[in-house]
Design brief:
It contains 10 helices and 14 strands. By secondary structure, it is of the alpha/beta class. The chain folds into 2 domains: about 100 residues; about 160 residues, Rossmann fold (3-Layer(aba) Sandwich), CATH 3.40.50.2000. Strand 11, helix 8 and strand 12 form a beta-alpha-beta unit.
């Protein structure tokens, strides 16, 4: 964009910016992950909780305000306005964007994953140190929980993340394995399938909710279920946010402990090629996933489904913020 075009653009947005400043003010601290950051916005609830507990509350910029409904940790929840955010930064206000992975300069298909839990890393990048609780938060209303299906021995299941905004083929266990798992579990549980409309329908599912729920409705289904079964991703973080235990198939893409929650059953396999950080181009035939058997996962579902639900245990770690980065 030419200098003259930039000037015209700034002039055009000036009335809106003045209106934003008049109504929103100029908060000293804010948090932003981006318009496509569904799971990461949910993880930001952990950062917001830790910030408030330290007397450093932040405004949250998000495209998913429903994730923050009835959440009193942020000072306010605002729509993402890039011009307003840029203005805050020019005014010297702190707008943290805690991107916890970076691209590997030697391989565009590879991410450099932090050596600690992603929530701990996000807190570190925001200058939050000390004891940090590794869990996100979502506040469901009683009527939302009551409206969710409540079947006998209900298990929520999600089989693929390929319909996500940023799909990772290296997170996939395979539809065939999930189908075999569903056939086994259907003998003892009522299965509710969550996910996108284009996800393949699993066999013996009692209630098909693919593409039929809002984010909060999906959370309510999980809250009403004995457990959730799925792959590392948004729905796993959503389950933890509403205290639903989960059986999570991780494979070997990331180190153990990076995306794990202590209340869950986490399936890792770490062959010599792992952790790889790859998005899609595995050259080892996904051995880290093929080594996870359907029988082992089914056994853990049965074990977890018999255990007491509330409250789920939380892992607490120590964070040092000596390398704080703000963007």
């Amino acid at each position: 964009m030419s200098p003259s075009a930039r000037i015209l653009q700034r002039v055009a947005v000036l009335p809106r910016m003045l209106g934003r400043l008049a109504t929103w003010g100029a908060p000293s601290r804010s948090l932003l992950f981006g318009p496509m950051s569904l799971g990461d916005d949910l993880l930001c609830t952990a950062v917001l909780r830790e910030a408030r507990l330290r007397g450093q509350p932040r405004v949250m910029f998000t495209a998913r305000p429903e994730l923050f409904l009835d959440n009193h940790d942020p000072l306010a929840v605002r729509a993402i306005d890039n011009h307003y955010i840029a203005l805050l930064r020019r005014m010297g206000r702190c707008v943290d964007s805690p991107y916890y992975v970076v691209a590997d300069p030697a391989n565009p298909d590879c991410e450099i994953i932090p050596p600690r839990h992603v929530i701990a890393e996000m807190c570190r990048l925001c200058g939050i140190e000390g004891s940090v609780t590794l869990r996100p938060y979502l506040h469901l209303r009683e009527e939302e929980i009551a409206a969710a299906p409540h079947m006998n021995r209900q298990i929520a299941i999600h089989s693929t993340g390929l319909a996500a905004a940023f799909p990772y083929r290296t997170k996939e266990w395979g539809i065939e394995r999930f189908a075999a798992l569903a056939k086994i579990l259907a003998h003892d549980f009522s299965l509710v399938q969550l996910g996108a409309r284009q996800d393949p329908l699993l066999p013996d599912v009692k209630l098909d909710l693919r593409g039929r729920t809002t984010l909060r409705e999906a959370a309510a289904v999980q809250a009403a279920s004995l457990a959730f079964v799925g792959l590392e991703g948004f729905l796993v973080h959503l389950a933890r946010a509403v205290d639903c235990p989960a059986i999570v198939i991780h494979g070997g893409r990331a180190p153990e402990g990076t995306y794990d929650y202590s209340a869950n059953r986490n399936f890792h396999r770490l062959p010599a090629c792992s952790p790889c950080g790859l998005r899609s181009n595995c050259i080892e035939n996904m051995v880290c996933m093929t080594e996870i058997s359907v029988a082992d996962v089914a056994r853990e579902v049965r074990i977890l489904a018999t255990q007491t639900r509330h409250p789920l245990p939380c892992q607490v770690v120590q964070v040092s913020a000596e390398l704080k980065t703000s963007r």
